[in-house]
Amino acid sequence: MLCCGIRVAMTACAFAGTILLGHAAAEEPRTVPRAGESLTYRIIVTTTLKTATGSKDQSTGWNYTYHVTSSGDHTADGTIELTTVYTAPNCPPNACDAVRREMDRLKARKEGAFYAVDIPPAVTRALTKLSAFRWRHFILELTQVALPNMRTGPGKVQFDPTAAQVQLTRLDCDKAALESFFPMGKSPRVSVPCTQSGERSQAGRPLTGTRFPKQEITFDISYEGQGTVTTPSGEWRVQKIRMTSSRPKSPANWVTEIFFSEQLGAIVKEHSITTMATSSVSVQNDRELIAVSQ
Known about the structure:
There is one protein chain. This protein is mostly beta strands. The chain has one domain. Helix content is 12%, strand content 60%. A 12-stranded antiparallel β-barrel has the order 1-2-3-6-7-8-9-10-11-12-13-14. It is globular. The two termini are 38 Å apart. The relative contact order is 0.18.
């Protein structure tokens, strides 16, 4: 049961120092992070199912680090390291003992309502080599993540350095439309048409097996002003951005609030919610920056 929860969290992923408020006051505003920086985020995904008698929540999450290897005026590239997986088992009373035993075999620790399972360093190093990202300002233009395999046996559960799955997502947006938003808030509101595509491989095979159909998406981006937010990584001056998306003939409604640091050139906090006009299911994503290092 627990392995199922861990796998859900990893699939959803697909997917030391603190920089304080005033350190870069004299620098030019940045819209991408510097080369050599590593940004660690925690994301929690909560799926809510509304029923006639109430609602049920299922939460999973993970910690992951973006290692920036190159950076320019508009884009930053690097690798993604998945380090910790979170699960909050919603187990029946008679099954919770089995969940706890499985958590013990994975050497999980309790963090509030969650069990946190650290992925062994040898596994994260192997999987990071298969990963990649490209940020274009606050939009992830390319994401490639490798999800770890899990071996189970009598009395034993462990991670395997061989990737269970590699997922690649591309977002090809109208660059001129996006650039018209910068400097931040130059245009109070812009619409950016994009094409999303993706591929998936199983068990380390080349990315030629499963291709996802291309989808046309339009992002409406609005500037919402300035403010200050505090995360585990420190206190940040931020630019507030609101994004919504629309897809032809799609019942989904997606809204996200972004808190962006021009000192760092990255998102430091984000909250999004997806609802479906034809479904009683909603999904919330909460992401925050927990560490920055060089």
